[in-house]
Amino acid sequence: MELCLSLYWSELRDVTLSLEVLFRCVHPSPSCLTFNSSNMWTSVDVTGFMREEEVFPEFKLTHRIVYKRPTSHKISPLGSRDVLPSGVQIYQLVLSYMFQLNQTTEVRPEFPLMSDLLYENPYSGQLWMVFNCNKQYKCAGDSYSRQYTTKLDKDDYILRLQVCHSKLSELKKLTDMPLCLHSKLSSSLSLEVTASRYDLMSGPTVTKKTLRPGISTRFYLRSLPEDKLAKCGIDQGHFLSGHFTFSKCDKVKKKVAYELKYIVGPQKSARSPSVSTEKKLYTNDSLKEFKINSMRYGVLTSDELEDEYGDDISFLLAKLRMLSESEMCSYSNAEALAASIYAKIDLNEILAQLRIQEQFSHVPGREWTHQEWNFRLSYYCPDQRGSLR
């Protein structure tokens, strides 16, 4: 380290100088922290080397980072002025990106593959421009994206990037290059810091701590609650960026700050109202009953319901009832329909459901005749009298 001292320009005389140099050092590990919120916690080790230090850990997220894929791309040759002396044609690739801002904020587009590269970049002519939904020009920039932070209003925007090269094959490699869009949050988000992993659950937070020289101290960070992320309009797959510091002085914070990245994990999905199986069956039965009853009033015909309820007993009974009430009823058709209904009825199951089977005196090993079944069913179920012939 080199320390230089000089007189102020207006001082033309000799002065007596008293100087005190104080060395301080706080080193975090890691110095660049990436926090995956799905883990719900992370930690940072801090060590003071020179002297006993009082640190004030502060972890703030100030920007949102969203990655966008191009919506369209186009490769075309440039004009005659962009032909090399050797006759080599220069081509351009134009990529279009769409993004939306829900509020007025500062925006900084960046293409990580080619950022901070000028003469070292094999591609030439890197230039991007931003337009709003009315095709009004807003801002532009090149590979040094950190110099082009622009304040944009709430609106839909399109960004067009131009990259040039003499080979088409090289331009085709960039047709799916993502855009990294940095936007400033309306208010910064602070992460809570605890002194132990046990305190991560429900323990107190730490705002300051004294470090002994040469001894490492670990700080634990909690993940952000989902309600804070929802208020900022942050979705799954987004990144948050910021910095963390250990000094109380604002001037030191601006000079000594460490990079912080926060990966937003999966969020709760809105649960659709669950419908129980009983309610579904009740709804289906009600719909079936409505359709079958509609045949009596001529709204629907039996032919229209044949494919859906052709084997259903209630449909066949309603169809038989309509035949018996019709003046043009054919005895052979009614008899065939009644026989098909009888073949589908399980009398043992009916009596078991009515809980009357045990009241019948039944000889073991002997099956009841059709007349006995009809008599007992008509006796205990008068509304079914004559349904079995």
Automatic annotation (TrEMBL):
<feature type="domain" description="Tripeptidyl peptidase II second Ig-like">
    <location>
        <begin position="50"/>
        <end position="231"/>
    </location>
</feature>
<protein>
    <submittedName>
        <fullName>Tripeptidyl-peptidase 2</fullName>
    </submittedName>
</protein>
<dbReference type="InterPro" id="IPR022229">
    <property type="entry name" value="TPPII_Ig-like-2"/>
</dbReference>
<dbReference type="Pfam" id="PF12580">
    <property type="entry name" value="TPPII"/>
</dbReference>
